[in-house]
Amino acid sequence: MTEKTIVHLLRHGEVHNPDGVLYGRLPGFRLSEDGNEMARTAAKWFEGRDVTALYSSPMQRALETAAPLVDAFELPVTVDDRLIEADNHFEGLTFGVGAGSLRRPEHWRYLWNPFRPSWGEPYTEIARRMRSAVIAARDAATGHEAVLVSHQLPIWILRLHAEHRRLWHHPRRRECDLASVTSLEFEGSRLVGTSYAEPAAGIGRGTGVAGA
């Protein structure tokens, strides 16, 4: 029989971000109190599962989200740079009209192509690196389960790619809430299904638009 392996993509919990900036890859953005509760709740959701491998983005918020899983499964966390947040021109800025960066003409040239997108890392590149990280985790956890802690956009792009859907999309239509779990089920090397769960639903503010 072909071995079944499940790779779970866990989005990090809520971030302490009082200024509401797009923090992207900036260092020093930690989980909020609600974010830590989300991480603990997500770890409980995995109780009883056959998790044998744990990976995380190098960002502080992702590593803090992985910490309860380290304790729960007594596993080391492997930092994988392929799981990092997408690069974005608007990193460190507030986004939008009014007091946001969109009212400043110097930023307009980054908005010409929403399909690539022109303001940051191409969707095709995000899909490529995330797929590579998933395959490595699948092979390391063959016959068991792996958890990869990452960020909203990379997880959502990976899911769109896995489900053979177009990669460009409206950010508000992402099904990838804080501390949510997107799972990919494999039989051998063949992807046979995807699923989605929100273990921490009801804690904190929900998805929002900023962050990731």
TrEMBL record:
Signal peptide: none annotated. InterPro entries: His_Pase_superF_clade-1 (IPR013078), His_PPase_superfam (IPR029033), PGM_Phosphatase (IPR050275). The keyword Membrane does not apply. Keywords: Hydrolase. GO terms for molecular function: hydrolase activity. Its EC number is 3.1.3.-. This is Histidine phosphatase family protein. It comes from Actinomadura gamaensis. The lineage of its organism: Bacteria, Bacillati, Actinomycetota, Actinomycetes, Streptosporangiales.
